[in-house]
Amino acid sequence: MNTQLSRRLFLAGASVAAGASVLPKAVFAQAAAPAPAGAFALPQLGYAFNALEPHIDAMTMEIHSQRHHGAFITNLNNFAKDHGVIANGSVPKLLAEWQQLPESIRVGAKNSLGGHANHTMFWQIMTPGGAKTPEGELKAAIDRDLGGFDKMKADFNGAGGRVFGSGWVFVTVSKEGKLAMVSKPGQDTPLMDGQMVLFGNDVWEHAYYLKYQNRRAEYLANWWNVANWSKIGERFAAAKAGKLAI
Fold first, then answer.
1. CA 38 to CA 9: how far, in whole Å?
2. Is residue 130 part of a domain?
3. Which residue range is the domain that position 212 belongs to?
4. Which long-range contacts does 145-154 make (Cβ < 8 Å, 24+ apart)?
5. Is the C or the N end of the chain the one with fewer CB within 10 Å?
């Protein structure tokens, strides 16, 4: 791991930990998202920062959701001030057509749009205590297209482990309900290829390093304990209805 990144993560974690030691437990409740200052706003998690423990710790959730995702929101609102295409466009369409964005902001806007889309999805598909296993049509699709639940998990974890550096692993879904697995570098997303995302996992080090350090495989294995199969099932139904956006 990059030494400077390790130090930044450690110092950020230490700062939050120091404050947590003298503040009441309520500090870990999710703070209300600030009033939007532009076209984009940070979404609410829907659960407290510590709700996914012991699998994902409160410190990681707070830094990840408020600072990392928050930075994408700030960037997008800055781009939107001078570029109506960003202010008025839908995130999926902007990502699918990112190569047509103004050259001066193209890469930065693509990265921030992808980061916003990826994280918005990510917060949605996790829940305290997890939500059992896939059911109904979603389970049938996993059995048909991904070899069953256990094989899907093994393949998904393997793909996440093979991401070099930072990135994501996704399961995509077509309007016909067909599933596929793909990994992407950085904040790239299947939305850039015109595909819909059923669910995905973040394998950037900021998603796990404070708790797991270099043990990405352990993080990937434990992540399934917080997967929200009820919400993922809703996303599957929305995709088949042509209504799944981010």
1. 29
2. no
3. 136-240
4. 145/178, 145/179, 145/180, 146/171, 146/179, 146/181, 152/181, 153/224
5. N
